[in-house]
Design goal:
The chain is an alpha/beta fold. Helices cover about 45% and strands about 10% of the residues.
Length: about 350
């Protein structure tokens, strides 16, 4: 896999690349480590809450922390991200309260936060359609700036290897390319589209699909937070300059289930999982911090304590979330009042108030 960009090996050895690199301080590196540890704890805590009956569903991100934190920290405040249902790490970097994510999967809200406050759209359940939303938004950014001016801000859309086979995603590639939209397509190739392996999606590396649409494609070690940060920064800078879209394939692995309703032991073998455990994104940063002296065990103990404190807060906050009123589902369907929705709401209220005995 010679085309794979890597700046930090699984053993924690620092590499450099002539075109894509990062000059990162010890403080910044410790921040990336903290991000990944806290996001992993958020993920494992939410998984436990689902098993305890507190959440209806949870899509784990275990193993994909570097891909999400690296990409999320490459974003500027005026950039905009369009996620799938698994980008809890990107949400973290955009300042979204994790309790808002828990509220969504608990079923007490249809959103939980204002996307414009964070430059982070609501999670998308329908596979791949967020790529079209991202291209439309990017074309709006482009036109607000003027077609002859660089847009100044970038847009990024996240999706998985399975979604790359969806018509929506390929249509988004076409629209972005022909309109030179300032968007980065970020594919987290975690090897499994639920129970279907990557071989069922493509016969070539996914990043090479970009060639057919006339835009650059890049492949990065998705378990290397430094490489992901470097390559995403470069792609976003390209978009902001007005040089058009690009595709990043973050080559990573889903260590857990597709969602909490999935049993991955039915379709993949333990030896495959063990191979990827040796490439753990957090452990390689931990090794590098200790080797270079940029972080010591006292710092790591402090981060672990922060993770414990956050987990306790999330558990209590999740259980304290109030149940919505039965007719709350009608409140935010449209931005303005709509006759049919109001009619349905009245019917629902009458139904709830009737005697069905």
């Amino acid at each position: 896999m010679s085309e794979l960009l890597q700046l930090l090996t699984p053993e924690g050895q620092r590499l450099h690349h002539p075109d894509y690199d990062v000059d990162i301080s010890g403080e910044e590196l410790r921040g990336l480590y903290r991000d990944m540890v806290l996001v992993r704890r958020l993920d494992t805590e939410a998984h436990a809450l689902q098993r305890q009956g507190e959440l209806g569903l949870w899509p784990p991100l275990l193993g994909q922390e570097a891909a999400q934190i690296g990409a999320g920290r490459a974003l500027r405040p005026d950039d905009y991200a369009f996620p799938t249902y698994r980008e809890h790490g990107v949400a973290w970097t955009r300042g979204v309260d994790p309790v808002s994510l828990l509220a969504l999967f608990r079923g007490v809200t249809n959103g939980g936060y204002d996307p414009t406050d964070h430059g982070f759209a609501l999670p998308t359940i329908v596979i791949g359609d967020q790529t079209l939303h991202a291209v439309g938004y990017a074309m709006g950014v482009q036109r607000d700036a003027g077609l002859d001016s660089p847009p100044g801000s970038g847009v990024i859309s996240f999706f998985g290897d399975g979604a790359s086979s969806q018509g929506d995603v390929n249509e988004a590639f076409v629209w972005a390319a022909v309109n030179n939209a300032p968007v980065v397509f970020f594919c987290q190739n975690n090897q499994w589209a639920i129970s279907q392996p990557l071989s069922r999606q493509t016969r070539i590396p996914l990043y090479r699909r970009a060639e057919g649409f006339g835009c650059p494609g890049l492949r990065v070690d998705g378990n290397d937070v430094l490489a992901v940060l470097a390559i995403t920064r470069a792609a976003l800078d390209r978009a902001r300059r007005g040089d058009g879209p690009s595709l990043i394939e973050a080559y990573t692995y889903r260590m857990g289930a597709h969602t909490t309703s999935d049993d991955p032991t039915r379709y993949r073998v333990e030896t495959e999982l063990e191979q990827w455990r040796l490439k753990d994104p957090i452990e390689r940063v931990r090794a590098y911090l200790l080797r270079t002296g940029a972080g010591d065990r006292a710092f790591m103990d402090e981060v672990d304590q922060q993770a414990d404190d956050m987990a306790a807060r999330l558990r209590q906050a999740c259980r304290d979330l109030p149940d919505p009123a039965p007719d709350a589902m009608f409140a935010h369907v449209y931005a303005e009042p709509q006759d049919l929705v109001q009619q349905e709401q009245r019917w629902w209220r009458e139904y709830l108030g009737a005697d069905h005995g």
